[in-house]
Every structure is written in structure tokens, then in C-alpha cells.
Design a protein that fits this description.
The protein is an alpha+beta fold and 125 residues long. The chain is built from one helix and nine strands. The protein has a four-stranded antiparallel β-sheet with strand order 8-5-6-9, with no helix packed on it. Strands 3-4-7 form a three-stranded antiparallel β-sheet. 23% of the residues are buried.
Length: 125
């Protein structure tokens, strides 16, 4: 189930990047083909591979949950879901952004202020 969720998140992130023009599809790629998330190893998992990709990544082995923004030239608004506190929006730049300890999910929000932002770290309702 975790693999399926990660694959769907990756496909959604690739689709969003294509829509924003931050990622170009190879000429041979079809519209339904998404890039596979990369497998990484970690000492915390005993050297076994786990999937880490664009978008929401839940914390593992004492590591905090984070959002991986895979585009290299844009800052975007994400919505962060927290429990028991309320959800909020956060501007993230390219790369990894550690999230709150109580974060239970995060996703790109194209409807919030147009989806793009200027200053990583800014927050909103």
C-alpha cells in the first residue's frame, strides 16, 4: 500500500511539474507514464531500500516528515495537514523541507494564490 501511495504522489508531482512547465517530458514519453521514485538506502532501515520521491514523505526511524519539491526553478505553495492542530499553507523552494512534528500529510496546492510563491518559509491559512 505504501508503494502505491508513493507512486501516486510521484505521478501527481510529475503532472504538476509538467503543468507548471518546470519539467519537460521526453519526446517518447506518453501522457500516462510517470517517472518512478528513486530507491534509497538508509542505516536506519538496516540497509534495505525504501522509496523516497517528490511530494510528501513520512518520517522514518526518528526522522521528521518532509516535503520534497523536485522542480529546480520554482517555489510553490503546499498545504500541510496536521493533527491535532489546524492545517496551513507553506511556501517551499526546491529540495527538501522538514515539516512540523505533528504533520500527517502535505501536497502541492495550485488553488492557493495561484500555486506559486516568492519566499520559501512564508505561511498562510
Amino acid at each position: 500500500m505504501t508503494f502505491l501511495k508513493t507512486s501516486l504522489r510521484t505521478a501527481a508531482a510529475v503532472t504538476a511539474a509538467l503543468a507548471l512547465g518546470t519539467l519537460s517530458a521526453p519526446a517518447s514519453a506518453s501522457g500516462s507514464t510517470a517517472a518512478a521514485p528513486s530507491a534509497k538506502t538508509s542505516a536506519n532501515t538496516g540497509g534495505t531500500a525504501f522509496l523516497a520521491g517528490c511530494g510528501w514523505n513520512e518520517g522514518r526511524g526518528g526522522e521528521r516528515a518532509y516535503y520534497e519539491h523536485c522542480a529546480t526553478n520554482t517555489n510553490v505553495w503546499i498545504q500541510v495537514k496536521r493533527f491535532p492542530r489546524s492545517n496551513y499553507h507553506r511556501c517551499v523552494g526546491p529540495g527538501r523541507t522538514n515539516l512540523d512534528v505533528d504533520a500527517t500529510g502535505a501536497w502541492y496546492d495550485s488553488n492557493y494564490q495561484g500555486g506559486l510563491c516568492s519566499h520559501p518559509g512564508d505561511t498562510g491559512p
